[in-house]
Design brief:
Layout lengths: L1 H16 L12 E10 L7 E14 L2 E13 L2 H9 L13 E5 H6 L3 H8 L9 E5 L3 H5 L8 H14 L8 H10 L5 E7 L5 E10 L2 E8 H10 L7 E5 L9 E16 L6 E16 L8 H26 L6 H8 L9 H7 L1 E12 L5
Parallel strand pairs: 1-4, 4-5, 5-6, 11-12
Antiparallel strand pairs: 1-2, 2-3, 6-7, 7-8, 9-10, 10-11
Helix pairs in contact: 4-7, 8-9
């Protein structure tokens, strides 16, 4: 009963924070905490949709009964799915108010995702800050998980909040992703999760997108952090593990407290070659130093960390080029700095041949008791 009371209290807080969400009585409202989309295995031309919703019913005397249910429907698009779902439940339900949207990787790769967001983005009462994730395998398999007494959506939302604060994944929601994809500012990186063998939810990194479609390429959590650093982004302190001279027994970790990023895009007019240099300065302190106690200087560790992180950053640039995912907004930079260039060159060919050179410089400003 205590857990149910906590969940109900949380719902009241959410409703109060959103202002006048609508005027429907709480006991008639179906609160959608998560929705999933997959390709329908029985009919591949259709989309299989499912919602995980909280059904709150008054039981008299100011008491409420709470149930957490999953309901499925299929259709040719999300509007049809929404209609089918509404016809399967009693009470008011609107998928545009989902706190979490999960999209199966096969659907994201073959059909794209913006059409799935439309009921949320275009709805006058849509929840524009809902989180989005691409799932390894079917999204419904994750939405259907039961983890303790907590609705699965809230569990994943907490997972994402912690990951965002640690710069493991970018801060994003349906509204920001819609703008990225539709306005083509830059290609998107969307959290990529899977159901683990222990029936938990595991964050694998970020799925790389090209326009509306998932490319099938994924950046690990550490690679995502480097990509975000190269975009000049960082939230709270991010601890990076440094493998010292390729010896796992002699690794150390640095807590990154500040990031400075500078990029330089140049075009050789005679050859048409495009070069992008991304310089990143990381400032932080030693978190831990493995191996036997020994004298070590910050300068030595700076050099080792800079070499190691730069090598890993090069791997990131190779992956995004292979995926044709423009997460650094290079096309936008070209149009801004060299407005005539892409009129005479095919963008996809330019991106395949572009030379991206990352330079990561670590500046250790404190090593505690190390001298």
């Amino acid at each position: 009963m205590k857990k149910i009371a906590v969940v109900v209290s949380f719902i009241f807080i959410l409703l109060s924070l959103t202002g006048c969400w609508d005027q429907t009585n709480l006991d008639k409202k179906r609160i959608i905490n998560g929705i999933s989309f997959d390709i329908d295995e029985q009919n591949p031309e259709h989309i299989q949709g499912a919602v995980r919703e909280l059904n709150i019913r008054g039981s008299g005397g100011g008491q409420f009964d709470l149930s957490d249910e999953i309901i499925e429907a299929d259709g040719v698009n999300t509007s049809k799915i929404n209609t089918e779902l509404v016809n399967k439940v009693s009470g008011d339900m609107d998928i545009s108010k989902a706190f979490l949207v999960l999209v199966g990787e096969e659907l994201a790769e073959e059909e794209g995702i913006t059409s799935l967001f439309e009921p949320i983005v275009r709805s006058k009462q849509g929840y524009l800050t809902s989180k989005v994730a691409i799932t390894k395998g079917n999204a419904n398999d994750i939405l259907s998980l039961q983890i303790s007494e907590s609705p699965i959506a809230f569990y994943i939302l907490n997972l994402f909040e912690n990951a965002e604060n640690r710069t493991h994944i970018p801060k994003a929601n349906t509204f920001t992703l819609w703008n990225e994809i539709v306005d083509k500012e830059r290609d998107a990186m969307i959290p990529y999760i899977q159901k683990s063998e222990l029936n938990r939810v595991e964050l694998l990194g970020t799925a790389l997108f090209k326009d509306d479609y998932y490319t099938g390429e994924v950046l690990s959590v550490d690679q995502t952090s480097l990509a975000l650093f190269m975009q000049g982004k960082k939230e709270k302190d991010r601890v990076m593990q440094i493998l010292n001279d390729n010896d796992i027994k002699d690794e150390f970790s640095v807590s990154v407290e500040k990031v400075k990023q500078n990029s330089d895009l140049t075009v050789d007019k005679s050859s048409g070659n495009v070069q992008l240099t991304i310089k990143v300065d990381l400032y932080g302190r030693i978190q831990s130093l493995a191996g036997s106690p020994k004298k070590v200087t910050d300068q030595e560790l700076d050099k080792k960390a800079s070499i190691y992180l730069t090598e890993n950053a090069r791997e990131v640039t190779e992956i995004i080029k292979e995926a044709q995912s423009d997460i650094f907004a290079i096309q936008k930079q070209l149009n801004s700095k060299y407005p005539e260039f892409l009129k005479n060159h095919e963008w996809e060919k330019v991106y395949r041949e572009i030379e991206i050179t990352p330079k990561i410089n670590m500046h250790i400003q404190s090593s505690s008791n190390l001298k």
